[in-house]
Amino acid sequence: EYMGEHSGLPTNAMLLGDTFPDFLAETTHGPLQWYNYIDGKWAILFSHPADYTPVCTTELGSVAKYQDEFVKRGVVLAALSCDDVESHLGWIKDIEHTQSTKVEYPIIADPTRQLAVQLGMVHSTLKDAKGIPMTCRSVFVIGPDKTLKATIMYPPSTGRNFDELIRLIDGLQLTANYMVATPSGWQRGGDCMVLPTVSNEDAEKRFPKGFRVIETPSNKAYLRITPQPDL
Q1: What is the CA radius of gyration of the chain?
Q2: Are 155 and 31 in contact (CB under 8 A)?
Q3: pLDDT for 5
Q4: 107-134 in b/e burial notation, b at 16+ Cβ within 10 A?
Q5: At what angle do helices 162-178 and 54-65 cross, to 10 degrees?
Q6: What distance in Å separates the CA atoms of residue 220 and residue 121, rounded to the nearest whole number?
Q7: Which among 62, 91, 171, 209 has the fewest CB atoms less than 10 Å away?
Q8: Which of helix, strand or coil describes residue 48?
Q9: Helix, strand or coil, per DSSP, at residue 211
Q10: Which residues are catalytically annotated?
């Protein structure tokens, strides 16, 4: 734990691979115990600065529209915003009306910012009208083993791209299940790369579609390409 340089609040910096903490919170779906909720599945927790704000409204609407895509990938979702449940419930009506969708995932209430501080979601310098540090647009991707697989943090003024989040999930699950990596700009259906930790002998057994090695001036055979293994 350390003190934020500008906010003066104690906060935690989680590293990829760390165990994501369990917590109990009130939500729009009632009390939520995090570990019981994710129950060995992939999970995404994404935070928002406040209810009834323009960028957050579009983001929660986007996630609702992608809900089926996350379900297909076995991912459970939860949002967090620093207002109470009553405020969330009213805001959901605005989201559904203006974004033409239905919000079916829970929104966590964090009016004291206890969770936001615990998880390191607060902005160092930006404060709300009450002078309290604002919550950033954080994303935590948690694996079935409850460890942090990826994290994204945007400032309050910039909305996130949820197409990229779907792409990230696809890449993480391919790595977890098939020992491949995804190159820059990869899209589902594109070629993958054999992880450096996989020997050629092992790769021949793992990838029945085969793999090819790209020649390099260094003569180091580290660029090994294979078709996406789950298609």
Answers
A1: 20
A2: no
A3: 39
A4: bbbbeebebbbbbbbbbeebeeeeeebb
A5: 50
A6: 41
A7: 209
A8: strand
A9: coil
A10: 56, 145
Give the 3-state secondary structure of residue 49: coil
What is the CB neighbour count within 10 angstroms for residue 164?
Answer: 11
pTM of the model as a whole:
0.88
Question: Strand runs (DSSP E) across the chain, as ranges?
Answer: 2-3, 10-11, 24-27, 30-33, 42-48, 75-81, 107-109, 122-127, 133-135, 137-142, 148-154, 180-181, 192-194, 212-213, 224-226
Q: From CA 162, how far away is CA 168, in angstroms rounded?
A: 9
* Cα distance from N-terminal residue to C-terminal residue, the chain: 44
| Tens-digit pLDDT profile for residues 195-211 | 999 999 999 999 999 99
Report CA torsion sign: 38, 165, 78, 49. Answer: positive
What CA–CA distance (Å, rounded) separates 121 from 140? Answer: 10
CB 107 within 8 A of CB 27: yes
Q: Residue 101 carries which DSSP code?
A: S
Q: CA nearest 79: which of 50, 48, 115, 102?
A: 48
- Region label for 185, one of left (φ > 0), alpha (ψ between -120 and 50) or beta (otherwise): left
All residues at 6 or more sequence positions from 124 whose CB lies less than 8 Å from its CB, including other chains: 4, 5, 6, 7, 133
What is the DSSP code string of 188-221? TTS-EEE-TTS-HHHHHHH-TT--EE---TT---
Tokens of 143: 């694996």
